[in-house]
Structures are given as C-alpha cells and as structure tokens.
Design goal:
Largest interface: A-B, 64 and 64 residues
Shape of chain A: globular
Strand content of chain A: 5-15%
Oligomer: homodimer
Low-confidence stretches of chain A: 133-140
Helix content of chain A: 40-55%
CATH topology of one domain in chain A: Arc Repressor Mutant, subunit A
Radius of gyration of chain A: 17 Å
Largest sheet of chain A: 2 strands, antiparallel
CATH architecture of one domain in chain A: Orthogonal Bundle
Mean pLDDT of chain A: 85
Order of helices and strands of chain A: EHHHHEEHHEH
Chain lengths: ~140, ~140
DNA sequence: TGCTATAGGGATAATTTTATCCCATGGCCG
DNA sequence: CGGCCATGGGATAAAATTATCCCTATAGCA
C-alpha cells in the first residue's frame, strides 16, 4: 500500500474535514449512500464517470475513516451494503451545503470554470439522476 | 500552463463546489481572508506548511473562479490585498461548517486518520493560530 | 460449457497536484 | 555595493491520486 512521504497537516478542523472528504468521489459516495443507494453496483451505475476500482478504494477509505459501515451478506453472488455511521450522517450537513451552493451558483460557476484554461471540456448530466430522484416528475 | 487531459465532470452541485475548493490550501485561504488576513505575506506566515508558490497559484485560481478580488496598491515594495467577493463570502458557510465539524470530531478523526497506513506522521498546531485569534486569551 | 452478475484487489501507467529552485522588480538601509 | 522587503511566475522534479488492465470466486442460466 502506498505510504505518504510528506506528513499530513491536520491542525485545524478544516484540514481534518478535508482529509476525510479528500477523493474525487467521496462526497458523491456519501451523498448516494445517504439516499439509500447503497450497493456498490448501484453506486457504480449512478456514477458512470467513476471506475469500479476507484469506488472500491474510496469506499474502503470512508469505511476506515469511520464514515461508513459495510455489511456483507453471506450470499452468492455477493451482496454488500454500505450505510452511514452516526458521524457519517453528521457530515451530510456539509455535503448538502456543498450541493446546494453548487446548484445555486451553477450558471456562474460553469462559466468561470469553463473559462479556466485548465478545463478542456465539461461534462454534464451525470448526477442529474440525483435530482431526478430527489424531485421526481419535475423534468422527467 | 497545464492543460487537463481528462475532462472535468461538473454535473451536480457537489462537483462544482468541489472544483472550486479543490486545492490543498484553498479552504484555508478563504478562511484566512475572511478573517482579514489578506496580504500574501501575512497568509504565508499563517500557513507555514505552504510554499509561497502554491499560495500564489491557488490564490490566483480562487480569483479566476471569482471567489476573491485582488487589489494591487501601486507601491514599492508591492502591496496586495485580497478580499472575498460576494459569492466568495457565501462559500464561508461551507468552510465554517467544515471547520466546525472537524473541530467537533477532532479526537475521533485524529485517531482514524492516524491509524490509516497512508499516514506516516501528523503535524499539529499550524492553524491553531486561527483559533487563538478567534478566541483570544482562551489558552494563550 | 460459456457468459452474466457481484464484489475485491494487485500491478502498473497516466494524470494531476505540489514542492523546489531560480530569476525579476525597485526603493530603502547600512 | 549587497541585501532585504514584497510579489509574481517559469521550469522542472517529486509526490499523490486516478485510470487501466487483469485475475479471483461462485451461483445461475441458456
């Protein structure tokens, strides 16, 4: 397993939180699981941009950090379900805030981010499903 | 300048927000500036773990993303001050929440993070100054 | 038998992010 | 003159994160 060469700086709450949320899909994973999309295969379908491998890794990290609980059903083919722990749930305030802020400022943000020379392309519509599920029949 | 090879996925609010906050020091920078620590040299002193170069880069990105405003005083030696824009201020809800969550769960988090094999060492006390300044005379 | 679904993880390449180092500006001070 | 201050940024090395590819296991179905 990979070993850090530069020590982590986790002095203020900000950095602690950042460390827990640090991963391309971690907020999305927590979000998905909070919405009861809890089996790895379901999550994978929900996040087409993500690789199975990365999801495995990040789910594992979230579990190791105590945000998720993993339940393995002794079946075949295997069945696994993740759920938020208490502290994991408490993180949802932040995730929700991020989601809302991003949505509220979508137009502005898409603009400034697309203007960024580091951005070559911008894909949309992936997590759209989230909202479709949260507000069914709205635009579907 | 570096050009992305893999396009950004900024479909849901979560990813938009994540993109804006994506950078080792960005939350800390916004936090510092919100507390009126607004000159690059001051910020650098506040965050000993950060390189001058990285702060420059991340400040610039935050500015390009519209979160910060940069004011250059025509003096010598140069004087620069950053301030939060309106949308930048609105981000502070999230930053504050992250800070509070991290602090509230500090003990638990330090534990699980230190247990992580990827963590070799954990440094503390850097941003402590934040709190000292926010609640002066408490432990100083 | 061959293929599907479900989940997990090793090895290694590719990509992105940070760290290091170095140079430039231009007054002021000893 | 030589060095300091404050700020900015190029070039390149190092580190960290993700992406790709491949292999495991087993029940069920055509």
């Amino acid at each position: 397993m990979y070993e850090r060469k530069i020590s982590l700086a986790i002095d203020c709450g900000l950095h602690l939180t950042k460390e827990v949320l640090n991963g391309k899909w971690k907020p999305a994973l927590l979000n998905a699981i909070s919405m009861d999309i809890k089996r790895p295969s379901e999550i994978l379908r929900l996040l087409p941009g993500a690789t199975r491998r990365v999801l495995n890794v990040q789910l594992k990290e979230l579990e190791e950090h105590g945000m998720l609980e993993k339940r393995i059903y002794p079946q075949l083919p295997p069945k696994v379900e993740y759920s938020l722990t208490e502290i994991g749930w408490s993180l949802m305030h932040i995730i929700d805030a991020m989601n809302q802020w991003g949505d509220a400022n979508r137009q502005f943000l898409e603009n400034v981010i697309a203007r960024d020379p580091k951005t070559t392309q911008v894909s949309k519509s992936v997590c759209q499903m989230y909202r479709d599920m949260a507000a069914p029949g709205k635009q579907a």
